[in-house]
Amino acid sequence: MLDQLDQRLRQLIKEKHWNKLTNIQEMSFKPITNGHNTLIIAPTGYGKTEAALFPILNKMLHEDVKPVTVIYITPLKALINDLLHRINWWSSRLGFLVNRKHGEVPQKEKNLRLKKIPHIIVTTPEGLEIDLDWASRFREYYKNVKWVIVDEVHELVSSKRGTQLSILLERLKSFIGYDFQRIGLSATVSDEEKVAKFLFGSSERKMSIIKLQDTRNFEIKIRKIKNDSIMWKNAAELIHQLIEKPTLIFTNSRFSTERLYEELEKLGNTEIYVHHSSISKDLKNLAEDELRNGNAKAVVCTKTLELGIHVGDIKKVIMLRPPTSVSSFLQRLGRSGHIVHGIPKGEIVCFYDFDVMEAFALYISAIKGKIEKPIIDDGLDVVARELLGMILQYQKINIDDAYNIIHNSYIYRNLKLSEFMELIEYLAKNNIIKIDNGYLKLGYNFFKIWRFNKDSKSGWGKEFSEFFSLINNDETFTLKYNGVTVGEIDAVYVYKHVRANDIIRISGKLWKVMRINLNKSTIDVTPVNEGEGEIPIWKGESTSKSSIIVNSIKNIIKNFNKYYPVMKNILDKDAMDSLLKILSEYKEQSLNIPIDNIIIVEKREDDEWIYSTLIDEKIANTLSHILLYLVIKKYTLNAFARSSIYGFSIKGTPIDLLKEVVNMDDNKIRKIILKSILRSPLYIATLKEIQPSFGKISKINLKEDRFLIKEALRQTLKRYFSIKKTLEFINKIRRQEIRIIYVDNPTPLSEAVLSHAQIRPWLLDLNVSIYQALKGGAYTVNELSEVLGISPKSLENKLKQLRRANNKYKVTSFVDVDSRENRWCLYEDFISIVKSEEYYSSFAPLNQNEIFIASLKSGDNQVEVIFKPKDLLNSPDEILRKIPFNNIEEVKVREAIDTSYQFSQKYYHVGKDIIIYLLLNAVAYLQSLKYS
DNA sequence: GACCTGCTGCGGGGTG
């Protein structure tokens, strides 16, 4: 191939001291030169960027090209920065200008591109979105584009960002009126054809897929630690021995990252860093730099370091607990042995017996080359957003033209015009667009939702910059030390758990909370050296395990003897014992392992029914939601379910509800599934995510917003549930192809089910939501308002109503003497809150002997009780005797000498059962005012 | 205990 390259390019290759080109560079040259749309598949580190670049630069040297000639798209800002230098090295020497564009490029640098138009622009999907929608001058230069390169296609293909990009490419094609050449760069994927079609869309060019047979081997060891009360310490001790400088230690959560670091630190480890998405950028950069410089012994990280950023040569990868998919397993493993002939070296450290099964299943699947197929997101919210983008671009757009552009995208090739019209009508109803003689224009709600003005924080709406991105963010608090950001915590966690003087562990350090600024959503902290810090819990989306893992586990159990020799090589003794233990426990109970045709049912003492069987997680999720729906309808609100690949469970029913489900007809089950999804937090989250795209900001109305509800339901179903597979599963039970066996003793898989999180329903009934939010704690109106997403004012009114209630939803309030704020709690929880340490000072008078007067009212009855604080503690019955009614509508407390009522405290709608504590609260509060 | 990613353009006015 070298001989076909222009002399100037050949000279540069010589200058780089490249003796030869990599295989993938050789193989890609011809198809790209011939103008084919080309998908290049090879692992990281094989020079894919140059494989795409060489033939293009070669052509650019000979053709009359005008800037902008090439758009290079990649999903990460860090990659853009890397690529800029890499591409610029070649192109600047050939006389072509390169420019980058992402949110953190300084304004000065951004402005340059209009003065000197670049030949090659490197940006994100969002960057292209901005340019097409909004950059009215620069986008004119896009009319010269001949090539579009999309990097990390595997990363984009199954996300909304990829869907967005697929429409953007069709918009670009329509805008410039030229079928530009598309080149994709990807890591190993399972469904290459589909990925190629996704990328190439409506282009009529021939297509080529260039794939490097990945013959790289890898070394893997699966280990198990003892999961007793000090399992984190055990894990750290083992990992400490396994580390070979430099090592990447992957965990599956931000919490685990911090927790493991804590224990590694206790073992005296230095030169170890923490890396995850909630750590400040500077600290992340430090960790990356130290890796590259060879100073870091190890970095404990989440998926942040799984993606393509170069972090130097990694000697070894340790995974704390198995990752949830084969592709993630391979990506993590691939971070080590980065030199082309290096062999990746990995360790999986397991906590539980079933971790060992999963780890081995991952290994077997990886060896066999079984990788998860991409699931393309076909959300209509993306269509809506792109439609709005097109209107921004053209001011107005013909409905048919808009439809054709969307329809050209591979993802929406089956979208019917009627469905498109339904979408348009819904957008028009929300006044985010208006329809004018077959043309679409922006409606007056557009700039209400996507605000330009950052300061007008009041009310609803999002910042205009967010319009260009389909990534959602939950509310967070930023931790600041001396004004410098050190990390981030979920807002809900802050409201529920963080208070002044608490010690928090984040970014591998301990911080004391000095001040919580609710308005700015920041927390001022200061570093401390000792004490036990609490690690915050971040609530992410649930990560489900791929069905490849489930099937692989089934296969391994069925053919245990066949796999045994491999196992002996890869598992350490403890891991091996774990696997054998699972098998022998079933044997001891004379049970078959529930892999294909058995469900083992156990009822635990607390009314939790566990159905264990290896199962597709979507089926488990669907079944558990059906059961949850039935329990709530029939028995109790205090119910929850669990679902996992090891089975599912339901708590709160005295009878086996699965039996009832099996006896229902399919239509009824279908209806229940839909109803149960409408109550699931997963649906609520989807709804929240997509509704701004449709211009919906006010309260959702079941009739008016049918389109939105239907779409949210469809997306939730597609992502997390499966009606078809669930009905098939139930049918197998009916036909007794799946047998149900009841047992009394715990079995290994049921223990695995129990280790999964509880799914609680989200009820639209406000009383219930408040009940759920308050349960077990005491909160201010503002805190609750954030948790529930209801305005503080209406929430306060609701709480005042509930104060009068005479049922389990009844609430009450008291003053938090430390913060002087009113706190609300469930009436049923009040006494346990009084007795908790947290609010001790709110019920502890400072002076026992001062005299107070309480005036109590009930209807027309009224009494005054004179008391000393010590009476409340020593002889409460005497005080109670003086109160002639059980329900006290109003209590007013003041100090006897304060005849002006200058300081008094009131309570409403309380029973005699808690009045003593409220009097204590009033006294503690009034005295705290007086003595401070 | 449950991952990650990104996020105005253009031109006019002022200052040195």
From TrEMBL:
Keyword vocabulary terms for this entry: ATP-binding, Helicase, Hydrolase, Nucleotide-binding
SMART domains cross-referenced by the UniProt entry: DEXDc (SM00487), HELICc (SM00490)
Domain Helicase ATP-binding: 29-207
Keyword Signal (UniProt): no
GO terms, molecular function: ATP binding; ATP hydrolysis activity; catalytic activity, acting on DNA; DNA binding; helicase activity
Pfam families found in the cross-reference section: DEAD, DEAD_assoc, Helicase_C
Residue ranges constituting the Helicase C-terminal domain according to the UniProt record: 238-388
Similarity-based family: Belongs to the Lhr helicase family. Lhr-Core subfamily.
Protein name per the record: ATP-dependent helicase
Organism: Saccharolobus caldissimus
